[in-house]
Amino acid sequence: AAMLLVALVAVGLAATGTFEKLLSLAIAQILVIDGVVVFALFRLRARDPAAPFRVPLYPVVPLVFVGVYAALPVGAAVAQPGLVAITLAVLAAAYLLSRPMAAG
Fold this sequence. Notes:
Layout: H1 2-16, H2 19-47, H3 60-79, H4 81-103
């Protein structure tokens, strides 16, 4: 259901918006999603310090990455607040729609 929602929003934007707006929305979503995924590394590392994988210069590299990826959406929110609001709304709706599936 979450993927269908994102697809419907993308189709709507493609039908009504410009390529630039669609690309900006996709980039904003990638920034948020990638930042959250890398931030999860800290929780995973706290849960299992002897994980079978290593991150070079941990925790410096992930902290710098998360810091940069946090600053970019803030800059985008200043420049294009409507775009970031749509991005966060789409991601929140996708998350909420995926929760019942993950529980069941």
